[in-house]
Amino acid sequence: MDMEKLVALCRRRGFIFQSSEIYGGINGFWDYGPLGVELKRNIKEAWWQDMVRNPPPGPDGEEIAMVGLDCALIMNPKVWEASGHVGGFSDPMVDCKTEGCKGRFRADQLATSVCPLKPSRAPGQHDKCQLTEPRTFNLMFKTFIGALEDASALAYLRPETAQGIFVNFKNVLDSSRLKLPFGIAQVGKAFRNEINPRNYTFRSREFEQMEIEFFCHPDDSMKWYQYWRDVRIKWYTKLGIKSDNLRPREQGKEELAHYSIGTTDIEYLFPFASEPQELEGVAHRGAYDLTQHQQHSGKDMSYFDEDAWLREKDKYPEAEAAKEAKSKPPYRFLPHVIEPSAGADRFTLAVLCEAYAEEKVGDETRTVMRFHPRLAPIKAAILPLVNKEGMPEIARKLYQDLKRDFNVFYDDKGAVGRRYRRQDEAGTPYCLTVDGQTIQDHTVTIRDRDSLKQERLPLAEVAGKLRELLRP
Ligand code: ATP
Hints:
alpha+beta; Rossmann fold; 3 domains; 26% strand; globular
């Protein structure tokens, strides 16, 4: 697949625009157009529905407890000291001092970066290249709170959604009366001042994450790590990513963050890269984050296992011994955490890449976006065959009925073949056409985007049929 063609289609059809395009754009920032915003919303909604409201049953068929959160983008800067971001959330950066280049690169990505000098080569490969020694560069965006721009007013735009979940762990526990294991989920913006934003929306400076922190008993943590790895891989294939293009990759010991017990990257083979790239990381974080926040805030972040206590309290008949026992393991402890952390924009880009197809139909070539129907921006287009003989009236009525429940589109402009092609490019899975026969027997045709088959269906059954076709 040709990435340039996809980028051109995304712009032409209103999936993705460069941010501030009329001013020459701004590197690392993107806007979603009318079709793109629907696609990305559907992705986030599918994630929320399938992970938070109706997650798959656990390893023993049990129900999984999940709740959501929506935290502020700016938090107390102490959060980022405790989490390790102020001290360590940085990439190594090198600059090129050569006139005409002055490039800035990530030191760990030199081999796959391109130097601005011609002919195209990797930085450091021209005789003229003068690369500096690597320096660390913190990726957090800074801002100031209030009128004074001094150190006491310094704050950061959050570089991940996860920390909002950790600092609210006790609030959620106390307000929801949850018992381990349970998960807290959040979808929202994150900001990273990436040294080298590239590959379209793949590496941006502002993006959205879909994150779960799943809290569990330390003894069960490996079981939940495996559960979430499997659940997340299946979710991508269920939404139409071919398993050939998807690769779970267990990080080697040398790659792991110092606190991580294990991390699996779920990678997708994007057309712009020779190797699969990370869509999501599923990390076993142990008790690292709760420990850090407990130490830095001085607030107790522990969990009391009331069930275990009630089962065993008779072992401690003396009040003093009972009090002592209740305050430590195995009854009171810091839970372990499994974190499936996905990028909404990266998955949107993978969905766009996966969907793009060109194929011959008769002697024409059609471009079609084969989105999974649940993700498709427009679910059905309603097309009157001609703009007369009572057809527009019936088609309008159908459109008005359907739009209460579905994102549908009314199109009466141009030849019907052209209208089908436009919907193919938008990835609309179904076209409903009102024609001469509709006037006589109240049926319409429903055209399937992929098979191109058309069936007739009574008008009264259209909504039910669409509901059935779009059900998760
Ligand atoms: P990378 O190694 O690609 O920089 P990361 O390992 O730093 O990513 P995480 O911190 O694990 O990424 O973030 C979780 C998810 O957030 C990633 O899997 C990705 O989908 C998304 N993400 C991270 N950085 C970006 C970015 N700059 N642009 C778009 N999405 C991102």
